[in-house]
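Quick illustration, no need to memorize.
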Amino acid sequence: MIKKITVPFIFAALLYLSACQQPGGNVTGSEYMPDMSHSIAYEANYYNYYYNNTWGTEDEYYAYAVPREPVNGTIPRGYAGNTNANNTSSGIGFTPNGSVPYYYEDTEEERVRAIAEIIDNPYQITDAGLATGKELYTIFCGICHGENGDGLGYLVRDADPAKFDEGGKYPVQPANMLLEEFINSSNGRYYHSIMYGKNMMGGYSDKLSYEERWQVIHHIRSLQAKSLSLAYSQLENTLNTVDIPAGEMAVHIEEDHMDEAGHEGGDEDHGSHDEHGDNSHH
């Protein structure tokens, strides 16, 4: 009787001691059902069929690994703005979150690649966007590059002894973006410089959101167009064939909406249309 009790007891004690083994040195210790604590991660859309698979035939398993079509209305990672790569309407309405991956490093080689590959501005030209771009340019860029983009900002101003003004203290000449070289440059040249800076200029990726960077570039283009007496607005762009004006569509939609509201509310409401004017759609 004693032997019958002793053997199971000893076995249970040994099992308990081995189960509670602590890790140390080259010993990892013991865990009860380790797969419950350390899950095996599988790559999405990765074909890794093995002979012990019990999910079906090899062809059926392969069908699971094939990438699916995106759900209607979803937006790819890295996409923002209201146009696609071909500058045509995407038909998807959404608000960018201001954070978009940038796949170029802070090197001269990557800068050249960005200049060659980043062509389209993902945002159409709008009056509201130009106003925002001008405000941000004045805050962050104008002090060096000048109000007109000619590189004659406050920090590089000439001395004026009569006013005891010793002049600007900036050690180098900021870029004159009205030169033909910059006018003919792709949008990638500006965007990369905003992200990382160039020469003495620091980066502004932490100060300007994704959309704000592109609106600043729109404003720079408008300054270039102004210097050549060309048009760059919501209605027309004669500076280049890349940046696309938004046109009058938003204005027409708003006017149609106000007309309907006017009919519903009576003739006395029609006078409010002129008060808003073209700015009502912003």
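Residues 82-92, 250-282 have pLDDT under 50 and may be disordered.
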